[in-house]
């Protein structure tokens, strides 16, 4: 009988792959792992990594010792990483024929590691499966192209396009402005096609050289994997053309931020019907409860959508970013937009997640909030008609510090995410924020240096 590992072996040999990037996602969304010769990868059928990798901050530091040793074995033991044969991608920019394989993580007893973002998403998807439901998601990823810059104190600038000039003014949906970077995007699309990434449209967004790539709707886990791979691919394509691609939530002062909009719906596994619609095509009670759950619980898990101090710079009125958890039909001024669609395609678009969020965690959190709403029968507020930016309500924390306190205190969420995960995630983000607070900003030098 042919096993999945046999199929993976054949796939690697057919493509003459000589190296395999064995990787997992850490809490930030950074790909961590090992690069292995193909023969060694096939012999070992996986890899081992220190579990402490999942307590690393974005700066490479670790959480405080008392929390570290509360969560992990003092001996800093390894976790066992097994390849997911359905999450295998080519690495088109590599010199040698190379593949990247996303792994799942387990302890030595074979239990899924609780701190793993991919395992957390699987845990949420099982909640749906146990009800006979399957979520369908369609992410939209925004990002900026910028000039390459080696000085972090220097503000980012728009890159030069084919015309030799930087972009100026607002160029939303401009075909010509997107065409300025045709050679780069041709490489990006070629590479994504080689990787079987399910990309849809390319859009020029509001900011200078700010773009958006839409993914076709599909399985939540597969699309989270694809976003992880796409971010690496986009950065590599940019570097090939001597520019940089950044998924920071707010990389440029006074310019729009970058989001990861998440369209989500739920189908009945047996019938394939969208449970968000009644037989007569109207909104179902489950749909309204799903929105109610998003409204009630997004403020409790906001750090999973806005994981960095920079993420909160995006949440400003009149900057094309949501500042609330209101909902409305065909309304981009609220956090939860219901696009105009037929009954089978009825969905809600969560516009709060930043492009800097870990895709596994953002998708898991968004689906979990909706799930709790459905099982608890949470009723939504009345839909907003017209402009919703001025509805900046107190339901959303305004800083990363306040958001972490809310997440830490919410027992309803810990019941699903697990106490260990919540403790670890909050500790990692607090350690990052402490690191940030040690750095003196250019604003402080500009306005305080000779004035106070």
From TrEMBL:
<keyword id="KW-0067">ATP-binding</keyword>
<dbReference type="GO" id="GO:0005524">
    <property type="term" value="F:ATP binding"/>
</dbReference>
<protein>
    <submittedName>
        <fullName>Glutamine synthetase</fullName>
    </submittedName>
</protein>
<comment type="similarity">
    <text>Belongs to the glutamine synthetase family.</text>
</comment>
<dbReference type="GO" id="GO:0004356">
    <property type="term" value="F:glutamine synthetase activity"/>
</dbReference>
<dbReference type="GO" id="GO:0006598">
    <property type="term" value="P:polyamine catabolic process"/>
</dbReference>
<dbReference type="GO" id="GO:0006542">
    <property type="term" value="P:glutamine biosynthetic process"/>
</dbReference>
<dbReference type="InterPro" id="IPR027303">
    <property type="entry name" value="Gln_synth_gly_rich_site"/>
</dbReference>
<keyword id="KW-0547">Nucleotide-binding</keyword>
<dbReference type="InterPro" id="IPR008146">
    <property type="entry name" value="Gln_synth_cat_dom"/>
</dbReference>
<dbReference type="InterPro" id="IPR036651">
    <property type="entry name" value="Gln_synt_N_sf"/>
</dbReference>
<keyword id="KW-0460">Magnesium</keyword>
<dbReference type="InterPro" id="IPR014746">
    <property type="entry name" value="Gln_synth/guanido_kin_cat_dom"/>
</dbReference>
<keyword id="KW-0436">Ligase</keyword>
<dbReference type="Pfam" id="PF00120">
    <property type="entry name" value="Gln-synt_C"/>
</dbReference>
<feature type="domain" description="GS catalytic">
    <location>
        <begin position="117"/>
        <end position="452"/>
    </location>
</feature>
């Amino acid at each position: 009988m042919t096993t999945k590992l046999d199929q993976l072996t054949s796939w690697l040999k057919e493509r003459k792959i000589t190296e395999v990037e064995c990787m997992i996602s850490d809490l930030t969304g950074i790909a961590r792992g090992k690069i292995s010769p193909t023969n060694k990868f096939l012999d070992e059928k996986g890899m081992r990594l220190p579990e402490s990798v999942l307590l690393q901050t974005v700066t490479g530091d670790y959480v405080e010792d008392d929390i570290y040793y509360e969560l992990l074995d003092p001996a800093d033991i390894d976790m066992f990483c097994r390849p997911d044969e359905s999450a295998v991608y080519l690495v088109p920019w590599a010199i040698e024929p190379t593949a990247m394989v996303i792994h799942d993580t387990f302890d030595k007893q074979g239990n899924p590691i609780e701190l793993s973002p991919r395992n957390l998403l699987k845990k949420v998807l099982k909640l749906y499966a146990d009800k006979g439901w399957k979520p369908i998601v369609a992410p939209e990823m925004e990002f900026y192209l910028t000039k390459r810059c080696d000085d972090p104190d220097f503000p980012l600038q728009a890159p030069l396009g084919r015309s030799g000039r930087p972009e100026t003014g607002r160029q939303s949906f401009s075909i010509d402005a997107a065409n300025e970077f045709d050679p780069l995007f041709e490489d990006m699309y070629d590479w994504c096609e080689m990787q079987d990434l399910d990309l849809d449209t390319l859009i020029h967004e509001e900011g200078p050289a700010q773009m958006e790539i839409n993914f076709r709707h599909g399985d939540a886990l597969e699309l989270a994997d694809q976003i992880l791979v796409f971010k690496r691919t986009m950065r590599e394509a940019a570097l090939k053309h001597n520019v940089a691609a950044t998924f920071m939530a707010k990389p440029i002062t006074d310019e729009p931020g970058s989001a990861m909009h998440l369209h989500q719906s739920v189908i009945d596994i047996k019938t394939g019907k969208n449970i968000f619609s009644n037989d007569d095509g109207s909104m179902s009670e489950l749909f309204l409860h799903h929105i109610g759950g998003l409204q009630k619980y997004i403020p409790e898990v906001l750090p999973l959508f806005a994981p960095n101090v920079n993420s909160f710079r995006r949440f400003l009125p009149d900057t094309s970013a949501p500042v609330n958890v209101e909902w409305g039909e065909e309304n981009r001024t609220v956090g939860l937009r219901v696009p105009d669609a037929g009954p089978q395609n009825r969905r809600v678009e969560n516009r709060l997640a930043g492009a800097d969020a870990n895709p596994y965690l953002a998708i898991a959190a968004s689906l979990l909030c909706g799930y709790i709403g459905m099982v608890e029968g949470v009723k939504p507020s009345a839909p907003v008609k017209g402009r919703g930016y001025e509805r900046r309500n107190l339901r959303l924390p305004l800083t990363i510090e306040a958001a972490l306190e809310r997440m830490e205190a919410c027992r309803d969420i810990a019941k699903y995410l697990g106490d260990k995960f919540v403790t670890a995630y909050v500790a990692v983000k607090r350690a990052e924020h402490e690191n940030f607070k040690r750095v003196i900003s250019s604003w402080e030098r500009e306005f305080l240096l000779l004035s106070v």
